[in-house]
Structure formats: structure tokens, C-alpha cells
Amino acid sequence: MAAQFDLVAEAAEGSVTLLAELLHTADSVLVKKLSNNDRDWAQLPNKHQHGVYIPPEQRDSGFFPPLVAKERDPDADEIRETYFHTDWPQVAEAKNDTRLVNYTSKGAETHMTRVPKAAFSTLSPASHLVMGRYSAGDGATYRCLTIDSNSDDALVLADVFGLDADFVIGIFEPQAFLTAERDRIVDFAELVIAAWLAGDIAQFAVENATMPATLELAGMARAQYLAQHRLPDLNPFKLDRPGDAVREISRRIEWDLFREYQRRERATALVRTVLGDRPREISAGDFIRGLVDNIGEIDRLMLSASQQRKSRAGYSFEHHIEAVLTAGNLPFAKQVVMDAKKRPDFVLPSLRQLKRPKLGSTRGIILSAKTTLRERWKQVQREMAGSELFLATVDESIAANAIEDMAALGIILVVPEGLKASSDTEYVRHPNVIGFKDFFEIEITRNRLPGWQ
Q: Residue 239: exposed, middle, or buried by beta-carbon count in 10 A (0-12, 13-18, 19+)?
């Protein structure tokens, strides 16, 4: 029950979204991170692919109806296909002839076609397709949603199925995941109740269910990464792909740690909200009255979960960037106050060097760190003050037009190496996007460090 409540609570404005409804009603769910080809056929003219690529493993998993050979000339290459019904409630369309087709002349390549263009035409990079399968006698129907990577539903989707930064495609049984999440909370809740019965719940909360400060949690994630890879530090000059390392730490390891602490924090807070801190005899009626009397506080507690995650993510990313700069023995100043109270995340090598009238390689630069951008990159523009600005991010969802707007302003994006080359992002097409490795070894070491020294 707790896991189901989380789904509802973390939806936009506390409402039950189409996604939440699908996750609670579908027999099984296919989730796919959309590549550029999977979505830009609906956004750009003259694209040959019209639909979504489905890998053979998922195609033949039983989620879709089996492919059947199409009747055609015996000398022609075989075409294998199947048709099924899909509903697309976001665009109020239904398709009775959605097609899954494999042209064997192209190998195992299979596409789902005859899908509504409107469902894909405005999606950001790294968005998701979610298909819920509903059994119906001998056949099945499918409810389909496209989840924009910049939406709150994208966070809910990642929460429910534990999708990490490298997720591509998977088929899930939602009830199994909801049950597993509930069991994790219940297992910890048993410890909470034991502490409550012993009269020690306040101390228990301090010792076992207090979310670490952002700086501490970031340090825990880095320590775990370093131990796993047997590294002494995050020196970017000794890492093959320093950006991918930062992404793994911030988007996978720290996220897993955060979720575990959040489960503990919320389980403990719920018990204390309903039962109080002092043990006593309590009946079912007393317990229900406690729930009803405190429903507002319970709502606030659940709704605060996603906001807590969002507010911490940006600060955490800054801590990781600072750790990389420090491990690389690079000169920098953090959060220095510039003109008009501008406070960039990092200035390299110093504010004094940044303010020197000389231009070129001897002048300092600004490095801003943003986990996600959306429209916030426009705020960074105000920090430039005529200086070169590098904007580090692990955001997959930045559209091509935003990247081009940044290029026009002289902003250079610094992204993990894996994202730079990914077919799920727009980065590979733009010269003002570089990887972390190039930032440290070319932009800093080769082009600027000699002048700074």
C-alpha cells in the first residue's frame, strides 16, 4: 500500500496521472528510452523511420503477439509481421492496426509502426515510451504513453522501476516492483515499531533514519565508487572517462543511497506521525483515527519526497565537480561573488585572473554545474559578464535548438563522454559540446594552464 501511495503522491499536484493508472492496472509494462531515430521521425521532414525500434529480445519475449510470415513472392525476402490494438490517451487516438514488422533482408531489425505522430512530435531527447499490456481472452490490447524526459512523470517512472542512467529497455511486472518496494519499507518499519514499543523511537530516528547532509551523501557515493574501482581519488587526468565516472556516482550510486535513506526517513516519520513517540496500548480504532487526524501531514510528507530529491541533486553535482577539480590539483575558486551579486559555481583559476583585462588563454573561465538544465541555462548566461563559460551537466534531455541557442551565446557544454556519443541525445551533432576528458586535457591543460601559470 505504501508503494502505491508513493506513486500517487509523487504525481503532479498530487493527482493520479495516466502513468500511475497504467502502472496499477497493466499486466506487464514495456519501457523504452527513445533514441533520436525513435522520436525525430515525428519532428523532422524526410525521415525514413516511422515508428519505434524494438530489439529482438523484447520482440520475442511474449509481450507482443508473435510475428507471422507475410504472404508474398516465394523468391522475395521474408517479411514477418503482426498487428494489434493500441490506445494513446495523451493524444486521444486509438489504432487497431499498429504493426510490428521485421524485414528479414535487414536482419533482426524490427519496428513498431502505425503509431500516432502527435505522441512523439514534441518529445525531448531521452524520453520514454511506456506500453501497458492488458490481457483480453485470446488476445491483448496495449495502452501507450510517451513520457517526456523533462516531466515529473519521468521521475515517477525512474522511481518505480529503479531505472538508472544507463537504462535502455525492459519489460516489467509493476505489481512485483510495487510489492518489492512495499516489502523493503515494511522490513524497516518492523524495526521502527520495535523502537516505538521500547520507547526509543526518537533516538532510533536520529541514528537510523536521518537523511545525511548533501555533502555527506555525495562523499559516501564517491567513496563507494572509488572502492568499487580501486581508485585513490577522482583525478580526471588518470581516468579514461571522467565524465562517465561523475555520472555513475551522481545518477546511480548516490541515487540508490538517497532512495534507501528516504525509505527509512519516511517509514519512521509515518509511524511517529500516527502513533507519536510514546508507546501505549492502541486499538484499531485509535490507529484509524490517527491516520484520519493526520492525513494532511501524511500528504505533506509524501509530496515532499520528489521535491527533496530535486533540491538536493544540483548541490550534490557541484560537490562531485569540486572533488574532481581538487583531485586533479587544478586551481579554482568556488561560489565567489562577482558584480551585481553574481555567484558562479566555479571560477578557474581565480576571480582575480577572471577579471584581468587581457583576453585569450591567460584569462580565467567560469565553470557552472547543473544536473538538469531545462530553461535554467538562461540563468547561467547572466553569470558570463564577458567571460568564457563552460556548463557541465549530466542532463540527457537538452534539445538541439537549446544547444544552438547556447552556442550563439558562446556557452560550451561539458557532458559525460557516454552522453556525448549517445544516440539518445542531441550532443553528438554540435561542436559546442565537449566531453569532460576534453575539457580537462585540452581546454584546461593544453590551452589555458600554461598561461595561468
A: buried
Give percent of the chain above pLDDT 90: 47
Are 146 and 195 within one domain?
A: no
CA dihedral (370, 375, 381, 382) positive or negative:
negative
**pLDDT tens, 153-173?**
888 888 788 888 889 999 999
The total domain count for the chain is 3
Break the chain down into helix, strand, coil percent, rounded to 5.
50, 20, 35
Instruction: Give φ, ψ of 146 to 5 degrees.
Output: -110, 125
Q: Which of 152, 172, 192 is the last residue of a domain?
A: 172
For residue 412, what is the enclosing H or E element? strand 411-415
Domain that holds residue 112: 2-172
C-alpha cell at 68: 507471422
Model confidence pLDDT, tens digit, residues 256-283: 898 888 888 877 877 877 777 888 777 6
Select from 370, 387, 371, 233 the least CA-distant residue to 379: 370
How would DSSP label each residue in 71-97?
A: P--TTSPPEEEEEEEEEEGGGTEEEEE
Which residue, 264, 299, 324, sits at the end of a domain?
324
Q: Are residues 318 and 253 in the same domain?
A: yes
Q: In what order do the strands lie in the sheet with 365-369?
A: 333-334, 346-348, 365-369, 388-392, 411-415, 433-435
Contact call for residues 377 and 370 (beta carbons, < 8 A): yes
**Residues of the chain where predicted confidence (pLDDT) is lower than 50:** 1-16
Strand partners, 82: 100
What separation in angstroms does the CA of 179 have from each of 184, 342, 415? 9, 48, 36
